[in-house]
Design a protein that fits this description.
CATH superfamily: NAD(P)-binding Rossmann-like Domain
Organism: Blastococcus xanthinilyticus
Shape: globular
Structural class: alpha/beta
Number of helices: 9
CATH architecture: 3-Layer(aba) Sandwich
Oligomer: single chain
Number of domains: 1
InterPro entries: NAD(P)-bd_dom_sf (IPR036291), Sc_DH/Rdtase_CS (IPR020904), SDR_fam (IPR002347)
Strand content: 5-15%
Strand order of the largest sheet: 3-2-1-4-5-6-7
Family: Belongs to the short-chain dehydrogenases/reductases (SDR) family.
Keywords: Oxidoreductase
Number of strands: 7
Protein name: Short-subunit dehydrogenase involved in D-alanine esterification of teichoic acids
Largest sheet: 7 strands, parallel
């Protein structure tokens, strides 16, 4: 993916990483369409950022995805980058069904079925373009688990393997697959994460992602330095240490007191 000259659709870009990346890509010389559920918020974003486009979409609703895809491709027939950004992260207690079942189903619908349905809605259009990109969004937690967010961890691990598999299937076509793997970033994904000293400042994250896209346009995975501790624990042979550090556990798996890293 080149850093400039693209037409990019980012569902789930009304806040956090999605919005910050949308604004940066726009500044870099791309046509950017942000997607979100709330029309009033989309109107506010486009009013505050002239040149940015917006389309209403609920990525938990298959009908909404199809309508948005039809609108985006009609209004922007040169669309060549899809970023499957929308996602939720919930704290769950898997010791009782009431502590996790509804949350887990919602997380799977948003984080896994959403990207699958988005790719299904856009794949034929992207394959018609001479050079196109699907950017999936997994997480450092796809590679090392945070104990309080089992469904989030699982869906992001699934997105990683989906990205690997889709890249194989699309080999030899005009569509590249690149996986963005954020670490903990200071956003509102979880309560308190915006102020977490362990989370990466949002501006720093987007700066590094932008530079990686600029300098490594053929990269399969976009990994800022902060995520590599989680990403390569198994390869380094220190996976147990990574998991213990992430969850503030002692060597015997007992949780220590202290601040939580997301």
């Amino acid at each position: 993916m080149d850093i400039a000259g693209n037409t990019v659709f980012i569902p789930g870009a009304t806040s956090g990483i999605g919005l910050a990346l949308a604004l940066r890509l726009h500044d870099e010389g791309n046509t950017v369409i942000v997607g979100g559920r709330r029309t009033a918020l989309l109107e506010q974003i486009t009013a505050e950022h002239p040149g940015l486009h917006a389309v209403q979409i609920d990525t938990t609703d298959p009908g909404s995805i199809q309508r948005a895809a039809a609108q985006v491709t009609a209004e922007h027939p040169d669309l060549d980058v899809l970023v499957t950004m929308a996602g939720i992260m919930r704290v769950e207690d898997w010791t009782t069904p009431s502590g996790f079942l509804a949350s887990a189903e919602e997380t799977v619908t948003t984080n896994l079925l959403g990207p699958i349905r988005l790719i299904g809605a856009f794949i034929e259009h992207l394959r018609s373009r001479p050079d196109a990109t699907i950017m999936t969004v997994s997480s450092g937690l796809a590679f090392a688990p945070l104990r309080i967010t089992p469904s989030y961890n699982a869906t992001k691990a699934a997105i990683h393997m989906l990205s690997e598999s889709l890249r194989l299937q699309l080999s030899g076509t005009s569509v590249a697959v690149v996986e963005l793997e954020p670490p903990s970033v200071r956003t509102a994904l979880l309560p308190g994460q915006e102020e977490s000293e362990f989370a990466m400042p949002l501006a720093d994250f987007v700066d590094e992602v932008t530079e990686l896209i600029r300098t490594q346009p053929d990269a399969r995975e976009i990994q800022v330095e902060n995520v590599k501790f989680l990403r390569y624990g198994e390869a380094r042979g220190d996976y147990d240490h990574v998991v213990a550090t992430l969850n503030h556990l002692d060597p015997h798996g007992v949780r220590r007191s202290g601040p939580r890293s997301g």
